[in-house]
C-alpha cells in the first residue's frame, strides 16, 4: 500500500501532491519505526525485570559489559573468536566472585535473554530435563548445511530420527570399524614418516583431521576415500570455511535474517561452501542407493538376506547408511532426510574427534612423564609388532583412556551447547530459587564448568592420574564432567555405548577412534610440543581447537 502510493507519486509528477503524500509516507514510516523501537524497549525492560526477580545475575555492572538501549549486550561482544571466548569465560568468573552461590547469569541480545550457566549444579537442572530439549537459536545457523537432522531438529522429528539412528552402529560392524580405523591410522603413520624425512616440525592439524574424516567416510557411509593424500581437500576446506563464517554470523545479529545474509558477500561465499559439501555427500548417497536398488532388482526376494547378510546380527541391526537406505526403501525417511543425517554424522563424527586428538597430542608432547608411561603401556600390549589393534588391546590401554578423559575435561570438543526454553524452569538450590523464563536461550559452557574449582583440584593442570584408581575423576559429581553432554540429547556416540555394552564392555565410536589413532602414533613415534599448552589461543568456533594447530617435533621411534 505504502509502496504503491510512493510509486504513484513519481508517475504523476505532481510536486504539490508529492509534498503532501511524501509527508504522509514519511510520517507513517517514522511512526512505524518509533513504535517498533518502543515495543523492543518495552520488551527488553520487561524481561530484565523478570530475570532479576528470578535471581539471574547481570553482567552489566559497568566494569565488564555494557547494556545498550535496544541492542542490549550484543554490541559489547568481541569480534575476535579467541577474545570472544575469553570474554565468555570472564563473565563466569566475574559473576561467581560477585555471588558464589548463583547458578545463572544473563546478557541480552536485543530483547532476547541469553543465559549462561555458572556452576555444574546449574547445568544438571537443564541437562536432566526431558522437557527443555529444544536446541538454541544458534543451531538454526547450522541448517543451511545440516538441514534439520538429529543435531538440529526437535519434537517428533528428533524423536523419530533418534529411534531410527540409535542402533545404527551395532556390535557386528564393530570389527569392521576397528579394521578400518587401524587401516586409516596406519596410512596416517606412513604419511607422517614420509613427511619427517624433509620436515623437522610437523603441524598435526591436517594429518589428524584428514585421518578422522577418512574414518567417518568409510565407517559410516561405507565409501572408500583417498582424502588423506589431499592436504588441501576441497570438502575439508569448505567445512572449515563454513565454520568460520557461521561463527561470524553468530556474533553479528544483523546477519541472522536469511535475506540479509544471502545478499552479503560472506553469505554468498557460504552458499558456495554449502553447495560443495552437499554435492560431496549426495554423491556418496546416490552411489550406494543405486547399488542398493540394482541389487534389489537383480535378487528379488533374496535381496534383503544377501545385501544385509554380512551386516546384520540376529536383531536385524545394520551399519549407518544401510540402516538409512532400508528406512528409505520402507518410506520412513526420504533422500533429503538421509542427506541431513549423513551430513550431521560427517560433521559430528570427524571434527569433534580430530579436535580432541590434537589437544591430546599437544598435552602428551608437553608432559614427558605422560609420554613415557604411554610408551611403556603400548609396548606392554603390542611389543614391537605392527599388528592392528583389537578391542581387547584397547581395553588394556587404561592409561591412554585416562589421558583421553583428561584431554576432554580440559578441552571438550563441543564446548558450548544451548537450549531454548518454551516454558519457565524453576531450579532450587538449598534455600535459593532461580527462575529461567520461557523464551530464554541457555548456554552451557562445559570448558569452563570442567574447570570448576569446587569439583576439581588444580583444574588447570593436565593430570591423567585423576582418572585412575582412587583419583578424583572416578568419584566426581556427575555433572562436573560431561564432554558428550548428558540427558536425552547427549551425544549419540555415547549412548551407543550403553546399548552395545550388553555385548562388549568397551564400545564408543569416538573413544575407539581416539585410542586407535593415538596408539598408532605412540607405537611409531615420540614427539615434543613446540608451544606450551597454556600459551595456545583457544579457538572456540563450534568445535574447540588450538589456534594455529599443534606443532610438534616428531621422531620415529625405531628409526
Ligand atoms: C570426542 C568426540 C565427540 C564429542 C566430544 C562429542 C560431543 C557431543 C556433544 C557435547 C553433543 C551435544 C551437543 C548439543 O547438545 O548441542 C553431541 C551430540 C551429537 N553427537 Fe557427538 N561428540 C563426539 C563424537 C561424535 C561422533 C563420533 C558421532 C557420530 C559418529 C557423534 C554424533 C553426534 C550426534 C548425531 C549428536 C546429536 C544428538 C542429538 O541431538 O540427539 N558425535 N556430541
UniProtKB/TrEMBL annotation:
Domain of life of the source: Eukaryota
InterPro entries tied to this protein: Cyt_P450, Cyt_P450_CS, Cyt_P450_E_grp-I, Cyt_P450_sf, Cytochrome_P450_Monoox
Family: Belongs to the cytochrome P450 family.
Cell compartments where the protein resides: Endoplasmic reticulum membrane
Protein's name according to its UniProt entry: Oidioi.mRNA.OKI2018_I69.chr1.g3826.t1.cds
Keywords recorded for this protein, A-Z: Endoplasmic reticulum, Heme, Iron, Membrane, Metal-binding, Monooxygenase, Oxidoreductase
Amino acid at each position: 500500500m505504502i509502496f504503491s502510493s510512493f510509486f504513484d507519486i513519481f508517475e504523476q509528477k505532481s510536486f504539490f501532491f508529492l509534498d503532501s503524500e511524501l509527508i504522509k509516507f514519511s510520517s507513517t514510516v517514522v511512526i512505524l519505526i518509533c513504535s517498533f523501537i518502543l515495543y523492543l524497549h518495552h520488551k527488553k525492560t520487561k524481561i530484565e525485570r523478570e530475570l532479576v526477580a528470578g535471581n539471574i545475575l547481570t553482567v552489566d555492572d559497568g566494569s565488564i559489559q555494557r547494556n545498550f538501549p535496544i541492542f542490549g549486550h550484543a554490541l559489547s561482544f568481541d569480534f575476535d573468536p579467541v577474545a570472544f571466548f575469553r570474554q565468555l569465560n570472564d563473565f563466569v568468573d566475574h559473576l561467581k566472585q560477585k555471588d558464589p552461590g548463583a547458578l545463572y547469569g544473563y546478557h541480552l541480545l536485543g530483547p532476547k535473554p541469553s543465559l549462561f550457566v555458572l556452576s555444574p549444579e546449574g547445568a544438571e537442572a537443564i541437562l536432566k530435563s526431558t522437557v527443555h530439549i529444544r536446541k538454541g537459536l544458534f543451531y538454526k545457523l547450522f541448517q543451511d548445511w545440516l538441514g534439520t537432522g538429529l543435531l538440529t531438529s526437535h519434537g517428533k522429528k528428533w524423536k523419530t530420527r533418534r529411534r531410527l539412528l540409535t542402533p545404527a552402529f551395532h556390535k557386528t560392524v564393530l570389527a569392521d570399524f576397528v579394521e578400518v580405523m587401524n587401516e586409516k591410522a596406519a596410512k596416517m603413520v606412513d604419511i607422517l614418516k614420509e613427511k619427517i624425512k624433509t620436515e623437522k616440525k610437523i603441524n598435526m592439524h591436517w594429518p589428524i583431521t584428514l585421518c578422522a574424516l577418512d574414518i567417518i567416510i568409510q565407517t559410516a557411509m561405507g565409501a572408500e576415500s583417498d582424502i588423506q593424500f589431499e592436504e588441501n581437500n576441497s570438502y575439508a576446506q569448505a567445512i572449515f570455511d563454513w565454520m568460520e563464517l557461521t561463527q561470524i554470523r553468530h556474533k553479528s545479529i544483523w546477519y541472522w535474517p536469511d535475506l540479509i545474509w544471502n545478499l552479503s558477500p560472506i553469505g554468498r561465499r557460504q552458499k558456495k561452501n554449502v553447495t560443495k559439501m552437499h554435492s560431496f555427500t549426495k554423491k556418496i548417497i546416490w552411489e550406494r542407493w543405486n547399488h542398493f536398488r540394482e541389487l534389489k532388482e537383480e535378487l528379488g526376494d533374496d535381496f534383503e538376506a544377501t545385501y544385509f547378510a554380512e551386516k546384520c546380527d540376529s536383531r536385524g541391526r545394520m551399519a549407518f547408511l544401510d540402516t538409512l537406505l532400508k528406512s528409505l526403501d520402507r518410506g520412513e525417511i526420504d533422500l533429503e532426510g538421509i542427506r541431513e543425517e549423513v551430513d550431521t554424522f560427517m560433521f559430528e563424527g570427524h571434527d569433534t574427534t580430530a579436535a580432541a586428538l590434537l589437544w591430546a597430542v599437544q598435552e602428551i608432547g608437553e608432559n614427558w612423564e605422560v609420554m613415557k608411561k604411554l610408551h611403556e603401556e603400548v609396548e606392554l600390549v603390542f611389543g614391537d609388532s605392527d599388528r592392528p589393534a583389537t578391542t581387547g588391546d584397547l581395553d588394556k590401554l587404561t592409561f591412554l583412556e585416562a589421558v583421553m578423559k583428561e584431554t576432554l575435561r580440559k578441552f571438550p570438543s563441543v564446548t558450548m551447547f544451548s537450549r531454548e526454553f518454551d516454558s519457565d524452569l524453576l531450579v532450587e538450590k538449598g534455600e535459593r530459587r532461580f527462575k529461567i523464563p520461557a523464551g530464554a536461550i541457555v548456554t552451557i559452557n562445559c570448558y569452563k564448568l570442567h574447570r570448576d574449582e569446587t569439583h576439581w583440584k588444580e583444574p588447570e593442570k593436565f593430570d591423567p592420574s585423576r582418572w585412575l584408581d582412587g583419583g578424583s575423576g572416578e568419584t566426581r559429581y556427575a555433572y562436573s564432567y560431561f564432554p558428550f553432554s548428558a540427558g536425552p540429547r547427549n551425544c549419540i556416540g555415547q549412548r551407543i555405548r550403553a546399548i552395545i555394552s550388553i555385548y562388549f564392555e568397551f564400545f564408543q565410536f569416538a573413544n575407539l577412534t581416539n585410542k586407535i589413532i593415538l596408539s598408532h602414533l605412540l607405537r611409531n613415534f615420540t614427539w615434543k610440543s613446540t608451544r606450551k599448552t597454556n600459551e595456545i589461543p583457544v579457538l572456540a568456533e563450534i568445535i574447540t581447537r588450538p589456534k594455529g594447530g599443534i606443532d610438534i617435533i616428531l621422531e620415529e621411534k625405531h628409526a
